Amino acid sequence: MPRVFSGIQPTGEPHIGNYFGAMRNYVRLGEEFGKNSIYCVVDLHAITNPASFEPALLAQRTFEMAVANFAVGLDPSRVTFFVQSHVPEHQELSWIFTTLTPVGELERMTQYKDKSEQLESVPAGLLMYPALMAADILLYKADTVPVGEDQTQHIELTREIARKFNHAFGETFPEPRAVYNKQALRIPGVDGNGKMGKSKGESSTIGILEPLDAIWQKLRVAPTDPARVRRTDPGNPDVCLIFDYHKLFSGLDTIQTVDAGCRTAGIGCIDCKKTLLAGMTEHLSPIHERAEALKADPDFVRDALAQGAKEARAVARPIMEEVREKVGFLKL
């Protein structure tokens, strides 16, 4: 049976881009592969970029990311879910991989280039991020990795690192493949400025646990078709991010009604947004209710994370022992 691995950063509130792009995929794969689905909150990755790392909030956001994943339907009793820093083998394997990975390969990573341009002083950890990601995946000999489209380059490097290790020390690791959610690869930010992302701030994102009244305030002022200046002007839903959101949250009948109403000026933008909010309310309210119940029982969440780390280490330890032996470290 395939072994699935994926990680999610706790650098901000989980948003609908995370939800449709990754978290629902986690649930689906977890139902299919059970404990062979291994997921973690990658708090070690979170500290590699000082532009988005807030030490005072890291523990809280790590906890909230676990709550969000459980609230959307990920069952910690059926999958392995834990916090990255609770399994020290991640750091150990990452260091070994840094000795195999050329600096040039790391410097050509698009995400490194984008993030390093925002910094006056670039920390080595940001450069080494892909080696740690490779360790996250290969520590469990995972062969299936649900990721966003923007992580494709990192998965290719992970495959290359696996090949380098296997060539140098003997066949050990599989070459993992990326699995994408084809229905939601690029979800636009609610401010209209490119893809939704935590690094772009709260004005760009719609949090899956965000209060519905706060979501409405963002939708109310969100840009629509710029050519539709007056209520009586026909619009083009194909260039409207609100219509993109309808495709995620509304039923087919509603989508068709909104599409026709926009093109004929039969529906105004505010009414279109109110219809969207109704669909989002129906979709997100049960998630909010589950999240509130989880927050009211923090011991359950912490116990689930502790159990997940125990299960992860049970897989990681023998693989790490195999790696140590093949690399040639002295065994006591």
UniProtKB/TrEMBL annotation:
It catalyses: tRNA(Trp) + L-tryptophan + ATP = L-tryptophyl-tRNA(Trp) + AMP + diphosphate + H(+). Keywords: Aminoacyl-tRNA synthetase, ATP-binding, Cytoplasm, Ligase, Nucleotide-binding, Protein biosynthesis. Its EC number is 6.1.1.2. It is found in: Cytoplasm. A motif ('HIGH' region) lies at residues 10-18. GO terms for molecular function: ligase activity. ATP binds at Q9, P10, T11, G17, N18, G148, E149, D150, I187, K195, M196, G197, K198, S199. A motif ('KMSKS' region) lies at residues 195-199. InterPro entries: aa-tRNA-synth_I_CS (IPR001412), aa-tRNA-synth_Ic (IPR002305), Rossmann-like_a/b/a_fold (IPR014729), Trp-tRNA-ligase (IPR002306), Trp-tRNA-ligase_bac-type (IPR024109), Trp-tRNA_synthetase (IPR050203). L-tryptophan binds at D136. It comes from the Bacteria. It is an enzyme of class 6 (ligase). CDD domains: TrpRS_core. Pfam families: tRNA-synt_1b. Catalyzes the attachment of tryptophan to tRNA(Trp). Belongs to the class-I aminoacyl-tRNA synthetase family. Homodimer. This is Tryptophan--tRNA ligase. The lineage of its organism: Bacteria, Thermotogati, Deinococcota, Deinococci, Deinococcales. The gene is trpS_2.
